[in-house]
Amino acid sequence: MSPRISIPLGPGRLFDGSPPPVLDPAGPYAGSITLLSWVLFAIAALVLAVVGTALWIAFFGKARTRQRLGGTMVVWAGGIVFPVVVLTALLVWGLSLTASLSAGKGDVADLRVRVTGEMWWWRVAYLDPRGDVIAWDANELHVPAGRTVLVELESGDVIHSFWVPRLSGKVDMIPGRRNFVKIQADRPGVYSGQCAEYCGGPHALMGFVVVAHEPAEFSRLLAHMAAVSREPKGGIAAEGQRLFDSAGCSACHRIAGTGANGLAGPDLTFVGRRRTLGAGILPNNRGTMMGWIGDSQAIKPGNRMPAYRVLSADHLQSLAAYLEQQK
Questions:
Q1: Phi, psi at residue 312, to the nearest 5°?
Q2: Domain range summary for the chain, segments of one domain joined by +
Q3: What does the DSSP 8-state code read for residue 250?
Q4: CA dihedral for 151, 156, 161, 162, sign (positive or negative)
């Protein structure tokens, strides 16, 4: 079991490593699912009460009452008519209630993004209206609050499932297929998610974060992401860039504006700004960055990043300082 880690995510909010709340909707697409869930819970409780009452009567009721309970009319009504009527009504109502969750490529949205499930992290691409990539990121999705976001879902290897409970329902990510889901956060905040389909290895440590901003703030952020260029500011960060290249990090990772163009691992262009490391399992600071680079296998066993135990503490410090600047 992974340790519980507390990560500040904004005023009054804390990510403590626990599963995200599933009955606390923060947008319209999660609200319909929550309403349906509560109705199903209520009906299940009612059925349990009826069955419990019938069992009590069968064991302790009067003989005449037990005889009536076992009559043909009660069996037909309780065993056939009631389930058919209730389940049919629930099916029709549930489908109409959740119709807005269905999404397709041509749907109108304020923002389009593509999220690709990888073993065991998330590749994020911000798209323009034509579907061309504006900027890349990983394990963290930024969206404008109060706006509809169409998320294109793909998989780079096995079946994953994209799930941010407070913003929408679960949608599978299937190799060779593109699925779609709409999400919307009614107000700025940080919303945690999780891969909801077992995908092998450290599946349970494959988290995700959606950060909702005020629309004007998001526009500035996206413009910055699209125009970013990178040069180390000197000091140990400059040494960190040299180590980043010489140690082979650039073969797997990309940093926009540099010679690092690897695609096997997460894009690190904005890693210094992210709230977490390792796909939502560690707070992002210099110490955890050093630990992750030095031996990520001890933190997230089975992930595809090799341990770099040959690097000294000074080398790890330089690399972490360099990556901290990537904002």
A1: -75, 170
A2: 28-101, 111-224, 236-324
A3: G
A4: negative
Instruction: Say if 111-224 and 236-324 have the same CATH topology.
Output: yes
Residue whose structure tokens are 């040959």 = 310
Q: Under CATH, to which class is 111-224 assigned?
A: mainly beta
The identity of residue 168, as a single letter, is S
Contacts of the segment 303-307: beta carbons below 8 A, 24+ positions apart? 303/119, 303/120, 303/121, 303/201, 303/202, 303/205, 303/278, 304/119, 304/264, 304/265, 305/252, 305/265
189-195 vs 160-163, strand pairing mode:
antiparallel
Residue of 135, 121, 114 whose CA lies nearest to 223:
135
Of the candidates 44, 282, 23, which has an alpha carbon nearest to the alpha carbon of residue 274? 282
CB hemisphere CA count around 205 (13 angstroms): 22
Superfamily of domain 236-324: Cupredoxins -  blue copper proteins (2.60.40.420)
- Compute the distance between CA of residue 177 and CA of residue 56 in angstroms, rounded to an integer: 52
DSSP string, 132-155: -EEEEEESEEEEETTS-EEEEEEE
In order along its 327 residues, the chain shows pLDDT tens digits of 333 434 444 333 334 455 667 889 999 999 989 999 999 999 999 999 988 998 898 888 888 888 888 788 888 888 889 899 999 999 999 888 888 777 777 778 899 999 999 999 999 999 998 889 999 999 999 999 999 999 999 999 999 999 999 999 899 999 999 999 999 999 999 999 999 999 999 999 999 999 999 999 999 999 988 887 656 566 777 888 888 988 889 899 999 888 888 999 999 999 999 999 999 889 999 999 999 999 999 999 999 998 888 889 999 999 999 999 898
φ/ψ region of 141 (left if φ > 0, alpha if ψ in -120 to 50, else beta) reads: beta
Determine how many CB atoms are found less than 10 A away from the CB of residue 118.
23
Residue with the two structure tokens 């997230």? 300
